[in-house]
């Protein structure tokens, strides 16, 4: 369990305090939604080596039975997030939902099945062109491609100058995406080409509607989480209180809109533990 010496943190904004109060007052009507990489798992040089922080599954197992629903919303394929998170078969997580590919895929713990639409042909076409585009852009050997099924991502983290490589690839990858009806989702030293029409905000809004939630907590760490932040802000205008949590301070656009700033996944796990403790105490 989390450290009892760590009290539940206080959000810095009035809207965040109202969101937290609503979650604590009506946990059976509250949804907790969480990004994966950078929020539940530390960022690592090789995304295939990413795993949930060791404290995450115990924290979720303690919290999930005490709220209406817990969802992981990620740009990864749903099945990949389940494996890397260690979520399948975890105690207390029998109703966990993982919304992968920004909500295009869904894994439900109670069925252990992934539901996904057919692959987008634009992704296949863009993937075939990608090596030539990278070569023409002069991307060095440190730039590498991650296959994500319904999307393809280009990482510059290992490049000699990661930020310069990232900026140099913005325009050519945007042009490639446009040719095939895709969009580019930027992140921290990564540019992802994926189908349009779905993002974390759409996924979160649809899930909140599905569950009938009357309060929502969303935690994220990167640019792809801005859409989910916007969804929570919109829900607030409709009378659904929300708490926005930012894991880390590497993305100022996100940190500046958060109600609660935490240093990283270990602190997110501690927050989840603290919520579970508070709800257990009543």
**Major β-sheet annotation:** 8 strands, mixed
H/I helix tally = 9
Shape: globular
Q: What's the alpha carbon Rg, rounded to whole Å?
A: 19 Å
Strand content: 15-25%
Order of helices and strands: HEHEHEEEHEEHEEHEHEHEH
N-end to C-end Cα span: 17 Å
- Average pLDDT works out at 94
Q: Would you tell me the structural class of the helices and strands?
A: alpha/beta
Helix content: 25-40%
- Structure summary, number of beta strands: 12
- Spans of at least 5 consecutive residues whose pLDDT stays below 50 are none
Q: Strands across the major sheet, in which order?
A: 5-4-3-2-1-10-11-12
3D architecture notes:
- Helix 7 (226-237) links the parallel strand 10 (215-220) and strand 11 (242-247).
- The radius of gyration is 19 Å and the shape is globular.
- Helix 2 runs parallel beside helix 9 (265-281), helix 4 (121-136) packs across helix 5 and helix 6 (200-211) packs across helix 7.
- The protein contains nine helices and twelve strands.
- Helices cover 38% and strands 20% of the residues.
- The chain has helices at 14-25, 56-63, 78-85, 121-136, 162-179, 200-211, 226-237, 252-255, 265-281, and strands at residues 30-34, 69-73, 97-100, 105-108, 113-115, 144-147, 152-155, 182-187, 190-195, 215-220, 242-247, 260-262.
- With 282 residues, the protein is of the alpha/beta class.
